Amino acid sequence: MKKLLTMMVIASAMTLSASAADAVKATLHADQPGAKINREIYGQFSEHLGSCIYGGLWVGKDSPIPNINGYRKDVFEALKALRIPVMRWPGGCFADDYHWMDGIGPQSQRPSLRNNNWGGTIEDNSFGTHEFLNLCEMLGCEPYISGNVGSGTVKEMAQWVEYMTSDGDTPMARLRRQNGRDKAWHVKYFGIGNEAWGCGGNMTPQYYSDLFRKYNTYLRDQGSNKLYRIASGASDYDYDWTKVLMENIGNRMQGISLHYYTCSGWDGSKGSAINFNTDQYYWALGKCLEIEEVIKKHKAIMNEKDPKNTIGLLVDEWGTWWDEEPGTISGHLYQQNALRDAFVAALSLNVFHRHTDRVKMANIAQVVNVLQSMILTDQEGTGHMVLTPTYHVFEMYTPFQEATYLPIDIESEIIQVSKAYFKEKEGAKDAGYRPCPLLSASAAKTKDGSVVLSLTNVSLDQDKTIEIQLNGMEAKTVSGRILTSKNVADFNDFQHPDIVAPKEFKDAKLKKGILTLKVPAKSIIVLSLK
Prior knowledge:
- By secondary structure, the protein is α/β, with parallel strands linked by helices.
- It has helices spanning 73-81, 129-139, 154-165, 171-178, 205-218, 239-248, 278-289, 291-305, 339-354, 389-396; strands at 8-9, 24-29, 43-45, 67-68, 71-72, 86-89, 113-114, 122-123, 142-147, 189-192, 228-235, 255-262, 312-320, 359-365, 375-377, 385-387, 404-406, 408-410, 414-418, 433-437, 439-445, 451-457, 464-471, 478-484, 503-505, 508-511, 514-519, 523-529.
- The strands form seven sheets. Strands 3-6-9-10-11-12-13-14 form an eight-stranded parallel beta barrel, surrounded by six helices. The protein has a six-stranded antiparallel β-sheet with strand order 17-21-22-28-24-25, with helices on one face.
- A hairpin with a 7-residue loop joins strand 15 and strand 16 (385-387).
- The chain is globular, with a radius of gyration of 23 Å.
């Protein structure tokens, strides 16, 4: 992407040069189509963690909260509107503690379990394989199952695949029919373990590679169901993990995962989701954008070992990770979601668009009530639900799914932001800096021939007039919506559900192949050009 600016390093309050008020030039290259933007980049992640499942997706058939066969009705309808392409389950760290046979059969007869990873919560196992796969069918999305390598067995995992996908006269297919499901489900994506370097077993990449090969041997395709086998990949900057797996597993896997969180650290406070200063605001944007360099380095390793690009890179955990909200249950990772989080979502999705040649899936963490969620539900059980600013970004970006990527060059002022979230911590002065462009854009051509264009201005105080040269296309109409608010710490709650919500955007004009618009500070705009 073209960038035009004198670089600045500012340790505290950030000010912009006088040139920031000038019109910004951009060029959209509709005559240079790139790769398809895989719809799976807009994937979701649902873990048995806090109230993501129980109280979020699932309330049970007897709940006074309106539901559809136990699935919370308002949450289901909101997720249906997102056109979710793929949903990951049951974890996360929970996956390597989960034994699937405890979650089948009559719900009243299922054994309870203690969620050892997340707060020690006792769960009744009423949401299991049938409930998850039936939900995916209702939503029209692909299920992504994470199998238990950490505390499970090869036999247990192989039988789970057979139970879900065999239509033959096999022992597990007969058991499934006995439990009320005659026809096998379609299950494409299957993860062989999760975070094997950490909560999934604290393994070395060499040891995990051998385990993958062993488990994979017995995960047999059943009938016409073909598994897309996903290896437990690296945490952000661990490039050696990717190298070892590419060398030792190779084409036995169809995908390798990558986890990357916008998080200030794993010890002590991570900072509040809604109480932060200017430096901490820009820190989050710089940190989330660093995923592009991380992806590039993992891609380079994969390209060397897989020049034909047969193995996908799946960012199956990403998003912001802040402190839990005061007064909520420890270990449940319930956090609010501000306009700052919406910017993290938009900037990250723009990065994924640029690397869709190798990035085949991404799953934001998590879908309801956990971390950077789409939806928050009332923890008191009163039935209230609210859509987060991040939800609105995903909804506004739905036209990008399966569209063809189009390059766009845009001039952007760039600031350098500290790598230290807490300036008062020891060593903060020596932490170094990250670049943070104030403008970001992405464009794609949809199947109906229209062009979808997103523009994000993360500046706190500088509106931008942008002139976009449209090369290789003739647009006659432009329409769009804008997501913004008075403050980047603004959020939606049950009393005020629409503080941050999309509105119609009318300040865009087309003339002689040039699109001109004013992009306010603190805003995300998505346009349709026809």
